[in-house]
Amino acid sequence: MASEEWRLIEKAKNGDESSFEALILSCKKKAWNIAFQYMRNENDAMDALQESFIKIYKNLNSFKGDSRFDTWVHRITVNTCKDMLRKNEKYKLNDSLYAGGEEGDYLREFPDLEPGPEDAAVRSELASELLRCVYMLPPDHRDVIILRDIQNLSYEEISEVLDASLGTVKSRINRARGNLRRMWLEQKDAADV
What is the distance between the alpha carbons of residues 74 and 71, in angstroms, rounded to a whole number? Predict the structure, then answer.
């Protein structure tokens, strides 16, 4: 850990608000991206981020420096998002692409998860379809895909964020990518029908 960062941490632990603000600003963008990937809309992501920062402030004295500060922040952000998703019914994901109604079974439509203009390029559209598949993965697989392939965290950082062994992280990523590939192909086959 850089000596400047550690100095800011020590000052923040002693109540220096400007040092705490500097620490948060250094990792806010990545924490925001993590929250947005989990919560899937700006308002909910902002709620999760604010809740995370409150937890970070309240628990700053428990930070021992065993990991990088931004890794600790990311772990708290991930856990806060997971808690919010677990506790609030509106965040629950549907397990199936198919739904039943009065007119029979139909393919459920999901909102476009990619921010940006409606006339996005084909590449953006494909990324949105792939992201929909990511959100249908089991939570432990979704977590590693988001952290590794979307947020570009290293295996070691993911291990720290999820509090899992390096071998477990690598295994989950491998299985998650296989499941994602299978889901993507199934969705493509269903769309071609």
Answer: 5
69: its two tokens: 């500060």
Q: Is the pLDDT of residue 119 over 60?
A: no
Q: How far is CA 2 from the centre of its chain?
A: 26
Query: Which residue spans of the chain are classified as CATH 1.10.10.10?
Result: 112-192
d(CA 68, CA 8): 13
Domain boundaries 112-192, corresponding CATH code = 1.10.10.10
Could you tell me the pTM of the whole model? 0.59
Instruction: Return the pLDDT at 96.
Output: 44
Is residue 8 helix, strand or coil?
helix
Distance from chain centroid for Cα 26: 18
Q: Which CATH number fits domain 3-89: 3.30.70.100, 1.10.1740.10, 3.20.20.300, 3.40.50.720?
A: 1.10.1740.10
Nearest to 73 by CA among 117, 38, 29, 109: 29
Q: Which two tokens mark 162?
A: 């999820």
The single-letter code of the amino acid at 120 is A
What DSSP line would sit under 36-82, residue for residue?
HHHH-SHHHHHHHHHHHHHHHHHTGGG--SSS-HHHHHHHHHHHHHH
Mean residue pLDDT across the chain: 82
Greatest pairwise CA separation for the chain in angstroms: 65
Instruction: Provide the residue type at 148 as one letter.
Output: R
Which residues fall within 8 angstroms of residue 109, CB to CB, at 6 or more apart? none
